[in-house]
Specification:
alpha/beta, 5-stranded mixed β-sheet, 7 strands
Length: 185
């Protein structure tokens, strides 16, 4: 009952929020960005939750939160699974933008887990990453072929964080602002 009332209060206070699209792309900013995050093993079934936010010209155009199909062995494994899912969506969007005539350079995949980013960028498997299945390492292949590049961001700047876990009020408000959710009326 308390949780339901909490949700209803949140919906009542945010019903006038909407996505606002702006033209704010500088010459140095990539056309296509994605933020990827995972919440490791915080469910009763031991599965992790992946979250991703896809931005085109700095505007959110796609987001997803999904329970991962497999049980990850580590935080790094959960993050790699989430990065692979985000990389697949980035490639799809890159091809769509190219078909529409936009010049898309190397898209950037942002993550806040340094181990997962290192695993995606290094050429060989390390002893800590040998347990990860090849299908989950597709992001590594995309980075090596230079189809995408990965960048580290602080957890406080991770836009996909809101899709993987409950955030405290001030942090939620900051992420909401970064996602360009604004008062529409």
């Amino acid at each position: 009952w308390l949780a339901a009332m909490h949700v209803l209060r949140y919906l009542r206070t945010t019903m006038n929020l909407g996505l606002v699209f702006t033209k704010k792309n500088s010459d140095h900013a990539p056309v296509l960005n994605a933020f990827s995050d995972a919440d490791y093993n915080n469910r009763k079934d031991s599965k992790s939750v992946s979250g991703m936010v896809l931005q085109v010209f700095g505007n959110c155009v796609f987001w997803r939160s999904k329970v991962q199909d497999t049980i990850a062995d580590s935080t790094m494994h959960a993050e790699i699974i989430a990065m692979t899912a985000a990389a697949n969506e980035m490639l799809w969007m890159k091809h769509l933008l190219l078909d529409l005539g936009f010049a898309v350079e190397q898209p950037v995949l942002w993550g806040d887990n340094k181990s997962a980013l290192h695993c995606a960028e290094c050429e060989h498997l390390t002893p800590k990453s040998r347990h990860i299945e090849k299908k989950d390492m597709y992001v590594k292949e995309l980075v090596q072929r230079q189809h995408i590049k990965t960048q580290w961001c602080q957890s406080s700047d991770q836009l996909a964080d809101v899709l993987t876990k409950v955030l405290p009020g001030p942090v939620l408000a900051a992420v909401r602002d970064a996602l360009q959710l604004r008062q529409t009326s």
